[in-house]
Give the backbone structure.
Amino acid sequence: MTSDSGGSPRSNTPGDESIWDDFVIENCGSRELALAEVLQDGLDSVMGLTEKFQTEDLDMPGLGPIFRAMFKNQDVARSVSKILGDISTDKGEYGLFPDPHTDSSPHFMCYDENAHRLYQWPNDLIRTGCFVHPDTIAFYYGGTRYIIICPRFWGMTRDYDSRRHRCPTVTNNMFTDHVEKFIGYQSSVLIHELIHFYLQERSLAQHTTPQEVYEWNACVLLNSVDSSRNPTNYELFIASAYYILAVTDDP
């Protein structure tokens, strides 16, 4: 991923901030380039799908069956297309802490103990998210411009290419594989959190009704409107489309 200055990313302190295109990476130190490359992997998969999604008739073979599995019908196609387009164009959002009057693009912040010293905003939720909950890899800090990258993120496999020849198993019209087999990758995690960012208050979460769901079959069971509010439905749509559009062409 190139910076908006055309060369090395712009950096400043505090927070070790760098700008890659319109996305901002902060406090990542020596892992900044690695995170930027993973982010680019994810963005490439979304941009390829966005172009295809805008030109393909969803009643035709190709993306249609995947779309119907994840979103049911074309009533939400425009909403889904908008989220994909927002990610592809690095769109900013207004009304986000700490600069609600500024068009804020997503900021990816690598969390460590220095964050308490560097950032003048509440950190208790971030500390709890990254260090108390054992399964948290990254999360969007709702109402802010920040996507928090927890230390566990760095133990994951990097990108979609690792998914080669890992088609999901379906038995009696039910997915039988754990969802992580298909989307348990760094690039997929970043896309998931970007979807939370662009859905904002429309996103399903643990406090909404219905709650956010993550497993294959739970995602498929959501109705059309709720599926368009559930980030993992998008994540599975993007991953499935990538597999069909790119990986299956590779011998």
